[in-house]
Predict the 3D structure of the following.
Amino acid sequence: MTVADSAHRGNSGEALRAVNLAKRYGDEAAVAGITFSTCAGEVLGIVGPNGAGKTTLLEALVGLIAADSGSVIWRGEQLQESSKKEVMFYLPDGVRLYQDRLTAEILSFVASVYRRSARDVARTITAVGLVPALQKRVRELSKGYNRRLLLAVGLLTPQPVLLMDEPFDGFDLRQIRSIIDVIRGEAAKGRTFILAIHQLADAERVCDRFLLLSGGRLRAIGTLEELRAEVALPAGSLEEIFLALT
Amino acid sequence: MRSPKVYSAAPASLHPLLWKELTEILSGRALWIMLLLVCPLVGYSFVQAVSLYSEASAAALQSPASSTSLSPLDGILVPTFGSFYVAVTLLFPFVAIRALGQEKESGSLRLLVQLPYRTSTIILTKLAAVLAAWALVSIPTLSVLGIWVLLGGHLGPLETLNLVFGHALYGLLVGTVALFSTTLSDSAATAAIIALAVTIGSWVLDFTLAGRSGWSAWLAELSLTQTLRNFEQGLLSAGLVLGISAVVCGLATLSTVWLPPGTAMRVKLVRSVPCVLITIAALAAATQIRKSFDLTEDRRNSFPSADQQLLATLQLPLIITVKLAPEDPRYIDLQRNVLGKLERAMPNVSVEVVGGRQDLAGNSDTYGEIQYVYGNRSDVSRSTSPREILPLLYALAGTQPPPAVPGAEYPGYPLVVSAEATLFWFCGGLPLLIALAWWRSRHPPRTKFLEFEGGQR
């Protein structure tokens, strides 16, 4: 654990804590004993290059893959596997939901499951800019609209922690800014976001804190200022900090 | 947008999940293609069956005594449903795999398992969707019933319902096998290979090992095809229904164990062991249940009603020792004409087969003898006919044979008719309706989504 994360643990607002999460594939450690925490309303970015272990970490966290060790604590209590889905919802990368179905049908399904009002659904659709794709089949959606659909699904879920794998993949600059606004708006209402991002510039724009991952190992965690102080680069960008730490 | 309340895990309504599963299986091409293929297959079988039935009926009309052997169950329903059985065996796994296979391939499953449903609930709704899909693909076959009646044919309601029920159980069994194979596989193609290996493998098992004894006979009993035999003979066997239910429940439970992607393989294996053991125990218990009901209109699986009533009053154990090999045609005759009926009619019957395959060569003088022990009396016969066995049993019990009830004979239902014109239905009208329904399922009414579009106004 880094000094920055120890300090964060002292924050009374700590909501979710992962302790010593580890996952091996054969001899290779995909995730090597990672510990971190987040607080309510925070946007935490898990950043690192391809193959750093970001997706494995997220999936081990929500229980979509079996971790070799580690635990997840929610507001001081250890989460059982069966309880994780009450706290976290994870949007994987590269998923095409029910390709023969209309976008509106999928949103209708998720809204019915979580008993969302038509008003909530309409606002979410408008917020992520999905209106033009409502009557299209998922297989006909562009990568960007498919990503918007996933984001809309995530926003319709009520879990206090939303995890997203590469949420900006497939978006152009304007779209990224628009989605960042949506995420920030949700975080301002108290929802926690954990985003796995390999584009460091995007991460820098949206995240409050950063968890730097490389080779399955935690290299650093903290706000941009804390990370700058750690590597003694007072005006360094996240990219420069990452290069200095790995 | 949404409120940032902490999520309380209130149980989610089952309705959206069930609706999602139903529409998902309906949106798959496999279902509609199977429906279109079943139409000509069933239609051709039906026309052939009616043709043969008409020929037999024409002969029976010349000789009224032989018309009693003309049963629509044997002549029309069993052959027509037989072609449906072939379609279900070969094609239905592809339909059932759709219920889960595409979710696994597209990654949707990783979202589905995060929804507030138990894994068992997800599996049960998928099974319900599979059963609904079976009901849909059975429409061409069920339409045969209406057409047969329209042609002037007769249907025995109980025996018909029993046959449909048997095929529904078989469809559910095949669907559960396919669903379980999908939970084990990473791709729909692998799941299809596993499911077809089971369905076609057990089909092969059935006809290669049929009529054998010992382990071969035991293996043949495991064939899925065996599940239909009793229903085709008009029998509703409690043991068979419970056995099929046990296997369906066992496979569904195993699917629940193997579905979650976040459970370690070792844990899944450990959890599977009790499921398998309980299923085997339930199956073994089901084989001990001998209660069955003869639902045929001609009562082919029962003695005449007067004999049935009298035999039911014989309370002492009847022990039958059969010195015949199980593959001997005489034993098969005896089983069908006497032993099976006695087991259903009398409260306490035990049968022991002591003949072996080596005895078929005829080295033993006693080969072919059947010994009946009732109370402290016994007798031996070589007959396989109830006309000789029943008087023998009444003599052992010290009772008089019941008087024959006049007018209780099955009349038979001969019908000379041509069903060639029904091919227009099976190869034209019905496929057209199916194609229209398919198109309609791809174009749901737009008004359904106005509630979303209202948000941008």
About this structure: Residues 3-94+158-245 of chain A form a domain with the Rossmann fold fold (CATH 3.40.50.300). Chain A has one domain: 3-94+158-245.
